[in-house]
Amino acid sequence: MPLSRRSFVSTLGLGSAGLLGAPLLGGRGSESRVGGSRATEWSRGTGAPARAGLIRLDSNENPNGPGARAIEALHGVITEANRYPDASEVTLMAAIARAHGVSPENVVLGAGSSETLRMCVEAFTSPTRHLVSASPTFEPPAEFARLLGHPVVEVPVDSALRLDLETMGARSVGAGLVFFCNPNNPTATVHGEATVKSFIARIRRASPETVILVDEAYHEYVDHAAYATSIPLAVADPNVVVSRTFSKVFGMAGLRAGYAIAHPDTARRLQGWRIGSGVNVLALTAAQASIGDLTHVADEQRKNREAKAYTRAFFERAGFTVGPSDTNFLMIDLRRDPQPVRVACREQGVAVGRPFPPLHSWLRVSIGTMDEMRQATEVFRKVLG
């Protein structure tokens, strides 16, 4: 009998109050980290952690969960949870390599892409080699660097919510690492292949020792015709690294699996900063089953595209500016302080994204299922008046 997500969880003895109902799973969204400073800021005035029935549009998660292949693979491997995951790591690395047409020695595994980002910060920045990042962007690289006492240079996004690559390039001279989130979280904007290649080439000329880390967490959601992955650059150039995750289109944010693609020399250097056996056997098995599941990916892309178009149309009809999006979330300019809106929405059962300074009037809304977006837009209609 086909195994559903809920029936699989029931076989683990967790039930609906366990894994499926667990609030604030750790992951890429800082709002997901219980006890963190940004989690505290986000939840201030919003009440307790996530409750049953809350529509979660706050952490850019895939609302549909893992695909059928992943669920079936998880069911088959649970009895191997008593074994260390060494063999499963080798198998997943080979599967990732096949999917991208690279060698397994180009692949570095991590617990979500967050671990691969941390590895890059530790490997390439220092007290004298700063990190260059955008503002706002995915925060962990800057947070890791500051925790280590390494300097951070943050460059504000431009008026179109795009990364200011000219200024980032200028500030990259002497840097240890440049963090380039493409598409960018939280602004949802993307840069095309020619622009990315030009940006990387400029840094390589001006600062030959600087490493460029391209975060492609939302790669599968991109519709922009000019976009292309930077994996070929990473395989050829020791100073380029691409990070990917199984948390988004593959629906595995709670399992924690990700990877980096890099030149073999760079991959070996990063391996030294990896936590051994840091990705558990369940995550490894689900990831292996997912990486080649193109039918699942296409289905998730379609669902996201349709629900996103529906949500965009609602906000635009209401007179709000909605930024371009090549991700599974939207940024909406409310032309006011969004915090009261966040609080009111949560009180009515919809959680939306936390603040992202310096975008003080913008609200980030993750895309849920079509049914969730229909319910959520009714709440937005009431809250926004």
Structure commentary:
It is built from 14 helices and 12 strands. With 385 residues, the chain is α/β, with parallel strands linked by helices. The chain folds into 2 domains: 152 residues, Aspartate Aminotransferase, domain 1; 224 residues, Aspartate Aminotransferase, domain 2 (3-Layer(aba) Sandwich), CATH 3.40.640. The strands form 3 sheets. Strands 2-8-7-6-5-3-4 form a 7-stranded mixed beta sheet, sandwiched between helices. Strands 9-10-12 form a 3-stranded antiparallel beta sheet, covered by helices on one side. It has a two-stranded parallel ribbon with strand order 1-11. Helix 3 runs antiparallel to helix 11. It is globular, with a radius of gyration of 20 Å. The chain starts with a helix and ends with a helix.
Any idea of the CATH topology of the largest domain? Aspartate Aminotransferase, domain 2
- Main beta-sheet annotation: 7 strands, mixed
Q: What percentage of amino acids are in beta strands?
A: 5-15%
Helix content: 40-55%
> What is the terminal separation in angstroms?
48 Å
The total count of strands amounts to: 12
- What is the CATH H-level superfamily of the largest domain? Type I PLP-dependent aspartate aminotransferase-like (Major domain)
Poorly predicted parts: 1-27, 30-48
Highest-level CATH class of the largest domain: Alpha Beta
Main sheet: which strands, in order across? Answer: 2-8-7-6-5-3-4
CATH hierarchy: architecture of the largest domain: 3-Layer(aba) Sandwich
Task: Sketch the topology as an H/E string, one letter per element.
Answer: HHEHHEHEHEHEHEHEEHHHEEHEEH
Secondary-structure-based class equals: alpha/beta
Task: Write down the domain tally.
Answer: 2
Mean pLDDT: 89
